[in-house]
Amino acid sequence: MLRPRMIAIIWLTCLPAGPAPGAIAPAGEGRLPPVVQSEIDRMRISQTPMVALVREVNAVGAAVYRDSDPAVRAHARKAKAQAVRAVLRETASRAVLRALHSDAPLRERMTWFWFNHFNVYSGKRDIAAMVPDYEDGLRTRALGRFRDLLGMTVIHPAMLRYLDNDLNVAGRINENYARELMELHTLGVDGGYSQQDVVQLAHILTGLGVRIDERIAPIPPRLKAYHVRKGLFEFDPRKHDFGDRILLGQKIAGGGLDEIDRALDLLARSPATARHISRRISAYFLGVPPPPSLVERMAAAWRRSDGRIAAVLEAMMAAEEYKTAANRGLKDPIDYVLSAARLKAQGGPILNAETLVDWITRLGEGLYDRHTPDGYPLTGDNWMNPGQMAMRFEIARTISRDDFGLPDGPMTQQWEHGALPFRLQPRTAAAVKAAGSPNQRWLLILSSPEFMRR
Predict the structure, then answer these.
(1) Are 372 and 116 in contact (CB under 8 A)?
(2) CA dihedral 121, 127, 128, 132 (to 10 degrees)
(3) Which of 35, 71, 76, 361 is 20–30 Å from 280 (CA)?
(4) Per-residue CA distances from 315 to 67, 289, 302, 372 (Å)
(5) What is the pLDDT along the chain (454 residues), one digit of tens a residue?
(6) Beta-carbon contacts of residue 440 (< 8 Å; ≥ 6 apart)
(7) Are the C-beta atoms of residues 364 and 333 closer than 8 Å to each other?
(8) How far apart, in whole angstroms, are the C-alpha atoms of residue 143 and residue 22?
(9) Residues paired with residue 252 on neighbouring β-strands, in sequence order
(10) HEC string of 7-71?
(11) CA 276, 26, 454, 348 torsion: positive or negative?
(12) What is the C-alpha separation between 26 and 10, in angstroms, rounded?
């Protein structure tokens, strides 16, 4: 029987060899070793709520807009950039530490998947200080119901800023968020919606916005009951279009947030959404375009469970199509870096997260750095190029060195007896066997074609 730590290693090195269906949400999920939890607890993002963090970072650069002295403005701009980098550095390190050490690694994988699916770019406007809270919101719901994930993103200030819905007001419609909500987040580009549906949804989303200041201008008595403020999120009825709408052939009666909830229910329960999200999840885990029959099995599980992600994942892992298609796709940069570090450490603590974050960035998949709302590519062919391979070999060489700080655990000594959580082909195994030192053995294993694939 596999020990939890070994399960964790396998999940991030070669998922198809992972635990059986039913074991994907083990009790105590999310626990970290005390030394890692302590490292995260010391971070400023752990000690400062999002509202205070955003106001604090914004205040650092306020002189950029308020002072006429070029020197003062330049100083403020530099200080603001440093404050933003500090927040993002901590957030990325936290994500890597959780991914490396959590006793529920599938939740961490799905947290990254959902961040990429509901992507926001940290470099836009004042989003950076909102990212830690946004990521935590996705993580909490990563294996739950899709509708809950969708609802969280729709009212989160990071998403409302990124897709400009805080500029979408009655009489001055901005369709940006409505379009991406249907095309990327739910139905998919082939999901059967029309331009008229986009316009209707944009009207429904009017009034969803962000308020940084504590002050609120007086609201007319007839609209007060509709006003909602939670943290930086605000539903402002003065900016909302209260007219009735027809969305995907269904009537959505005019109202406040209830109207938006009904629209989200409609989108989340659409068969097109079930297929679109199932296709993306399976592409992510396989690294190759999934067989249509696998997508249909997952979509059926979606419909039976009302969009419960854990049930969809169980259906995926139980399907023969999944087992047949496994081990073909190239790992993306994040999976490659984290799985290589974890395999070498073999359960030992890895606290030098910033080095791993830097490698991921240099491989082209920087955390919170994707500018476009479609997120990073999910299939391995997008990462297959000479520059990518050269960088991976260099990373493998660095991790293999004794002075990098990761232990040379028993797995390399016992690799001939099947201790590796993946199978080496005969030519690779012969080369590993002929290696002159443990360092060379690690280099060959971590740069082998077998380890590069999911």
Answers:
(1) no
(2) -100
(3) 361
(4) 59, 17, 9, 31
(5) 344 444 444 454 444 333 333 444 444 467 899 999 999 999 999 999 999 999 999 998 777 777 778 888 888 889 999 999 999 999 999 999 999 999 888 999 999 999 999 999 999 999 999 999 999 999 999 999 999 999 999 999 999 999 999 999 999 999 999 999 999 999 999 999 999 999 999 999 999 999 999 888 889 999 999 999 999 999 999 999 999 999 999 999 998 999 999 999 999 999 999 999 999 999 999 999 999 999 999 999 999 999 999 999 999 999 999 988 877 899 999 999 999 998 888 777 888 899 999 999 999 999 999 999 999 999 999 999 999 999 999 999 999 987 776 666 555 555 665 667 677 888 988 898 888 888 898 899 999 999 999 8
(6) 400
(7) yes
(8) 13
(9) 245
(10) HHHHHHHCHHHCCCCCCCCCCCCCCCCHHHHHHHHCCHHHHCCHHHHHHHHHHHCCHHHHCCCHH
(11) positive
(12) 15
User: Helices 309-318 and 271-286: crossing angle, nearest 10°?
Assistant: 60
Could you tell me the two tokens for 158?
């990071």
At 46-62, the pLDDT tens digits run: 999 999 999 999 998 77
DSSP H or E run through 234: strand 233-235
Quote the CA–CA distance of 226 and 77 in Å, as a whole number.
Answer: 38
Nearest to 9 by CA among 1, 283, 17: 17
Other beta carbons within 10 angstroms of residue 433's beta carbon come to: 12
**Whole-angstrom Cα distance, residue 44 to residue 91?**
10
Where residue 156 falls (left for φ over 0; alpha for ψ -120 to 50; beta otherwise) is beta
